[in-house]
């Protein structure tokens, strides 16, 4: 299980981090540890990857991802408000920045992550629930 934070600052800008492993810009997030609460996991991941402290506002989406080799991850995405800290890179991030919603949508290259961002910023009152299947690769 994973948790991702769509973090907004008081100006309505979106927090993104550039991942060291693949160079992609994405909202911060990661694996929920056994001793984490769900909200605690997203707050911890945001802090570790960006240096920003957050309050969790609400669950914005639940996403099931099934990979080509049968791997699967359920990801919970939370809309969050920045309440402290300063943008700082971590072990997993090479850059951190605040972007307008339009800029963020352009910078986030992975379609499934853009959908999560769009769902969180849509203003909908109930969480989105989506399943993604990656087709098997055939030789």
Automatic annotation (TrEMBL):
<dbReference type="InterPro" id="IPR000086">
    <property type="entry name" value="NUDIX_hydrolase_dom"/>
</dbReference>
<keyword id="KW-0378">Hydrolase</keyword>
<feature type="domain" description="Nudix hydrolase">
    <location>
        <begin position="1"/>
        <end position="121"/>
    </location>
</feature>
<dbReference type="InterPro" id="IPR015797">
    <property type="entry name" value="NUDIX_hydrolase-like_dom_sf"/>
</dbReference>
<dbReference type="GO" id="GO:0016787">
    <property type="term" value="F:hydrolase activity"/>
</dbReference>
<dbReference type="Pfam" id="PF00293">
    <property type="entry name" value="NUDIX"/>
</dbReference>
<protein>
    <submittedName>
        <fullName>ADP-ribose pyrophosphatase YjhB (NUDIX family)</fullName>
    </submittedName>
</protein>
<dbReference type="InterPro" id="IPR020476">
    <property type="entry name" value="Nudix_hydrolase"/>
</dbReference>
């Amino acid at each position: 299980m994973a948790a991702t934070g769509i973090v907004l600052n008081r100006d309505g800008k979106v927090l993104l981090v550039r991942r060291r492993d693949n160079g992609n810009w994405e909202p911060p997030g990661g694996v929920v540890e056994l001793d984490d609460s769900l909200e605690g996991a997203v707050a911890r991941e945001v802090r570790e990857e960006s240096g920003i402290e957050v309050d969790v506002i609400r669950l914005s989406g639940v996403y099931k991802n099934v990979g080509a080799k049968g791997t699967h991850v359920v990801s919970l995405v939370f809309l969050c408000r920045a309440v402290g800290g300063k943008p700082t890179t971590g072990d997993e991030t090479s850059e951190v920045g605040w972007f307008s919603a339009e800029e963020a949508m352009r910078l986030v290259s992975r379609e499934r992550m853009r959908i999560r961002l769009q769902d969180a910023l849509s203003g909908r009152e109930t969480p989105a629930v989506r399943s993604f299947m990656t087709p098997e690769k055939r030789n």
